Please model this.
Amino acid sequence: MRSTDAPRRRRADAARNAERIMRAARAAFAEAGGGITLEEIAQRAGVGLATLYRHFPSKDRLVREVVEELMREEIEPAITRALAEQDPLRGMSVMLETVLTLASGQPGILATARDAGALTADVAPRFIQPLTQLMRNAQAAGQVRADLEPDDLKRMLVMLLSTLRPAEGPDEGWRRSLVLLLDALRPDGATPLPPATPPARC
Model:
């Protein structure tokens, strides 16, 4: 055996353990929310608690890594698709549909991330900024009312998320709310908005 084989094998084992922990944590948070313990997650992953702690020193750290994985695997590809849309209003719809589908299908993850403070100021702009860009493009194309502001988008996203009723089982009612909201953004027959207030925290 070459001298480099053992370290390489240890690194590969460590990477596999980290992946198993992440997969188990994501499923556990989706099912049970933030009440699940690290011990339970370690058992689901088939690793010892010490191994879990070597990769993720705290539960908050693990939650943040799950949020980052969701951003990479679910949100960022949707952003790319949305920005590639020739119809910017359709692009806005793609982004909002992705978040609402994720939140309605895995409500425990959203609640866990919120409670752990994982939805930090550096996460929200990665979604809001491209959504704002699409809004500006839609305004330039005459698809969206000219007096809409980025802060309005944040409030609308919170409104849409508040319509979810995960405790009652799978909920697709948000799709009606999204269509109604997007129709309300159109300039035809729009009533002038009151003056904008200070930006809301997302």
Summary: The two ends are 55 Å apart (CA to CA). The longest helix spans residues 5-32. The mean pLDDT is 86.
